[in-house]
Amino acid sequence: MYGFVKLAAAVPSVRVADCYYNKEQILKQIQLADQEGVQVIGFPELCITGYTCADLFFQTTLLESAKKALGEIAKATKKMEMLIVLGLPLMIEDELYNCATVLLKGKVLGVVPKSYIPNYNEFYEKRWFALGTDLGIGEMTLLGEKVPVGTDLLFECGELKVGVEICEDVWTPIPPSSLLALAGANVIVNLSASNEIIAKRDYRRQLVSQQSARTLCAYLYVSAGAEESTTDLVFSGHSLIAENGAIKKENKKLIDTDYVLVEDVDLERLQKDRIKGKSYGDSRKFFMPEVRRIEGETLSYRGTFKGRIARKPFVPHATETRDKRCEDIFSLQVAGLKKRLSHTGSKRAIIGISGGLDSTLALLVAVQAFDDLGWDRKGVVGVTMPGFGTTDRTYENALQLMRELGITMREIPIAAACKQHFSDIGHDENVHDITYENTQARERTKILMNIANQGGGMVVGTGDLSELALGWCTYNGDHMSMYAVNTSVPKTLVRSLVYTISKRQSEKVKDTLIDVLDTPVSPELLPVGKNGEMLQKTEDTVGPYELHDFFLYYLLRFGFSPSKIYFLAKTAFAVKEEETDELYSHETILKWLKVFYRRFFSQQFKRSCLPDGPKIGSICLSPRGDWRMPSDACSSLWLSEIEELSE
Hints:
Largest sheet: 7 strands, mixed
Helix content: 40-55%
Radius of gyration: 30 Å
Shape: elongated
Strand order of the largest sheet: 13-12-11-10-9-8-15
Number of strands: 20
Strand content: 15-25%
C-alpha cells in the first residue's frame, strides 16, 4: 500500500536455556504481530536459547533443543505472510556461530551469522562463537533442508529487500548493513543483546538513527529484554524502528520485556531519497558488494496503518524543538541579508509593511541584521501603503511595529495613483478584477523600488514559499524584490517564526506581533466592508495554507503521487495535534488538492525568475537551486489521477 511496510520489534519473555518456553513466548508474539498485519518481525539475538547462556552454549542438549524449537516455530507459521527473523546458536562445519535465521511461510530462507564478535569489557563471545566473516561455505543443512548461509544474503520479497546484521555488527567502522544497503536493502533488521549502563541508551539511539540515515534505510533494532540473566549485567529490551535518521518508534521504558513494537515505514520515501541523493549511487560504483539474493513471496499490506503523519511537516510539534528550529531559521535569514547588505554597500533596507505576517517577519529579519552589523535601525525604511482594501487593524499594526522597533517610517497612500492608472489604461475602477488587484500590487512595488533608488538602498522581499508554490503573488509586483528573505519559508512556518521571535521583543512589540498572528491572511486588494471589516481572505480563495504546505512538502520532497498525498492527508488531518486544529473532510482535502496542482503547474513562470534568497530547509523553489521545471509543463496526468480519486 503506497510503499508502506509494517515492521515489528518483538522482545519476548525469556527463560535462560529453556528453548521450549522461549519458543512458546516467541510464537505468542508472532500471533499478536500477525493480527496487526506485520510483514517483518525481528526478535533479539539468540532469543531461542537466551543470550546469557555462557558455557551452556557448549552443551549438545541446548544446541539440539534450539534447532528443534526453530522447527516448531517454522511449522506453526506456515500460513503467515510474515518474514520472521530470530536468533539461535548453530553448529556449522565444526564451529559454533551466533546466527539469525530468516523464516517465511514455514521455510528457512537463509541463515546469517554474526560478522563481528565482541570480546572486550563485559563481552567475551569469542569464547563460544566464531566470526561469521570466516565462514568458508555458502550452504548448510538445517531442519532437513539445504539453506543458504553467510553474511552476504539479501532477502527480497517484491519491493521489500531485507538485510540482517547482529548487535556488534552495527558498532563497527563499516557495518555489514552499509554494504547490504548499497546492494539494495531498504530494511535492515538487527538482532541485538545490548546490556544497559548509564548513557548507553542515548548512544545506541544515535547509532541506530545515524546508520539508518547513512544507509537511507528503515532500521529495525531489537534487543534482549530484562529477563536475561542478571549475574553481571542488566538487559533493558531497548528496541527502535528508524527511517532515514528519524526514530519512528522506540520503547521508552528503561527496563522492559515481553512486548511488540509495531510501526509502518515508507519504502517509496526511502527510494526517492536514494534517487535524489546521488552519493548513494556513486558509492555503489566503488563499494558495491557481491550478494546472494534470496527470493521470497511478495508480502501484502494488511491491518491498520500505524504511521503518524504530522499535519505540519515543516513545523516541529514539540514546543522546545520548534523554538530552537525557528531561532536557527531566523539566524539563517539574518545571515543571508547581512551578507547581501554588506556586499552591495547598501545601508538602507526598504520594506513594504502591510501589518500582515510575511512583511512582519521580513521586518524582524531586517532589524536583527542591522543590529548584528552595528548599524542604526533608522536605515531600515518601512513603507506602509494603504489602498482600497487596507483595514484599520493592519494599518495600525504596521505603524505600531515600525514605531516600536525604531525604524524609519514612511506612509504613501496608493489610491490616487491607482485611480490615475485605471484612467490611463481605460479600466473601470468599479470592476474589481485581477487588473484592479494587480495594479495596486505593482504600484506598491514601484514605490519601494524607487525609494531604494533614491537612497542607495535595496528592497527586501516579503513573499513566502507557499505563495510561490501557489503563484499567489503578482508578477513583477510583490513577486519581485532585490533580496527575498522569506523565499523558502512556508506560511505555516512563518507563523511559528513570528511567534518565536516575539518572545525576545518588548511587551508592546510582542502584543502587536500576537495581534498580527491573529489577523486573517489577506492581500487586502479588494475594498473593505461597510464597517471597515476585511472581506478578502486568502484562504477562502485558495484554500487552507496548512493543507497546501502539506501537499507541497510531499510533492517536492519525495515526488509522491496525488493519490498517496491524498492518503497521507486523510490520515494527518483526521487527528488534532492541538485543540485549535481543524479537521478536514475527504471532500475538502480533494477539492484543495486539485486547486494546488492546478496552480502549482500554471504558475511556474513566476518561480522561473525569482530574486535571490536564502534556502532554510529541504524544500526550496529557486530555479538556481532545488527546483527546475518547464513553465509550460502539462498537469493533466496529475489532475486526472485526482479526478479518479473523486469518483
